[in-house]
């Protein structure tokens, strides 16, 4: 009998506790405060939207991404790829359709979490910077300026790049290798384990510094130009570009394309140096990249400044922009698709906050 009383008391307490919790959540909802579970769900939705945006946009331009990397690291004395059209034709002829998408699986495995972290970090950095800006100015209605958006984008880029850099490093090697390469990495995890075993853990972050320096203007300008253009168009309301308070899909794509073009043009030389530094320590890189004609010294860099110096000295300043044309062709649709896909997926998932809010 006593045990029944205990069970009844426990059940009663549990029911009361549940009612109290529901009442508290209802109160928080009425006051505009989200319950912890709601906040977690919102974060997950935001991460999913960013990941989908990255995967879709990168797969759409995978052939151009691979050609860009091959152009960046090829030997100037043994030219195989002379441009976008010729390069794509050469890959198709020598490696077939699958060659155009070589390394895309690894690329997506890197870009999906990178994109998820990048978009989410930008949202959080924007909220934090906006809060501090309003506190400093004393204006509760103040909005982010293009410069503040640049700062938020830079923070997001650094966080996302650092979190996923080892994947980017092995993706570069997987993309460069061909069927005739002496060393064959069998996949992401085989490449990671091989580099760790033969070159040490520091090798996974080789080229990190120019990557981080490059990502500051690249991601920062992407977000700043995209959002500032959207705001300007909504405020000025040019004929045919704005429907009520929403931009048309075509206009959003154009904003994304402009943002990507500006960002990648500024940061591109650092991307070339990063890619070359990632090849350091790979003893088969000379054969893989350029055949036997490439000197060993050209693959040895003591750091970012040394890599810049040797590249310009041996190949000229133009070498810092190798692969820029296919990269430009790639960036225009890629960034545009990424931003628009992100907003569409967030609308579908019902996430309240959007990057322009």
From TrEMBL:
InterPro entries: MCP, MCP_dom_sf, MCP_transmembrane
GO biological process: transmembrane transport
Membrane topology designation: Multi-pass membrane protein
Record's subcellular location: Mitochondrion inner membrane
Solcar repeat coordinates: 41-128, 144-232, 247-348
Pfam family, one: Mito_carr
Gene3D superfamilies cross-referenced by the UniProt entry: Mitochondrial carrier domain
Keyword terms: Membrane, Mitochondrion, Mitochondrion inner membrane, Repeat, Transmembrane, Transmembrane helix, Transport
GO CC terms: mitochondrial inner membrane
Protein family (similarity comment): Belongs to the mitochondrial carrier (TC 2.A.29) family.
PANTHER family the record matches: SOLUTE CARRIER FAMILY 25
Protein name, per record: Mitochondrial adenine nucleotide transporter ADNT1
């Amino acid at each position: 009998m006593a045990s029944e009383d205990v069970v009844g008391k426990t059940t009663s307490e549990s029911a009361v506790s549940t009612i109290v919790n529901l009442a508290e959540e209802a109160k928080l909802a009425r006051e505009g405060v989200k319950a912890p579970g709601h906040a977690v769900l919102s974060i997950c939705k935001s991460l999913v939207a960013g990941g989908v945006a990255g995967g879709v946009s990168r797969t759409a331009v995978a052939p151009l991404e691979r050609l860009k990397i091959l152009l960046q690291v090829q030997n100037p004395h043994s030219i195989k790829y002379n441009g976008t059209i010729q390069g794509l034709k050469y890959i198709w002829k020598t490696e077939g359709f699958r060659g155009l998408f070589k390394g895309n699986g690894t690329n997506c495995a890197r870009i999906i979490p990178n994109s998820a972290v990048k978009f989410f970090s930008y949202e959080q950095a924007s909220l934090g910077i906006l809060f501090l800006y309003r506190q400093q100015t004393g204006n509760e209605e103040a909005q982010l300026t293009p410069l503040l958006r640049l700062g938020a984008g830079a923070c997001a880029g650094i966080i996302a790049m650092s979190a996923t850099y080892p994947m980017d490093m092995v993706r570069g090697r997987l993309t460069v290798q061909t069927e005739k390469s002496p060393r064959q990495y069998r996949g992401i995890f085989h490449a990671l384990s091989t580099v760790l075993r033969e070159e040490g853990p520091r090798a996974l972050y080789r080229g990190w510094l120019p990557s981080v320096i490059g990502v500051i203007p690249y991601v920062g300008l992407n977000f700043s130009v995209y959002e500032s253009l959207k705001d300007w168009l909504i405020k000025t309301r040019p004929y045919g570009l704005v429907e009520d308070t929403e931009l048309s899909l075509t206009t959003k794509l154009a904003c994304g394309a402009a943002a990507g073009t500006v960002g990648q043009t500024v940061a591109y030389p650092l991307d070339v140096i990063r890619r070359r530094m990632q090849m350091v320590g790979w003893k088969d890189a000379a054969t893989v990249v350029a055949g036997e004609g490439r000197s060993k010294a050209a693959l040895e860099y003591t750091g970012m400044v040394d890599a810049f110096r040797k590249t310009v000295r041996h190949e000229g300043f133009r070498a810092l922009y190798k692969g820029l044309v296919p990269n430009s062709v790639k960036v225009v649709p890629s960034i545009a698709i990424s931003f628009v896909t992100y907003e569409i997926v967030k609308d579908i998932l019902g996430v309240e906050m959007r990057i322009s809010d």
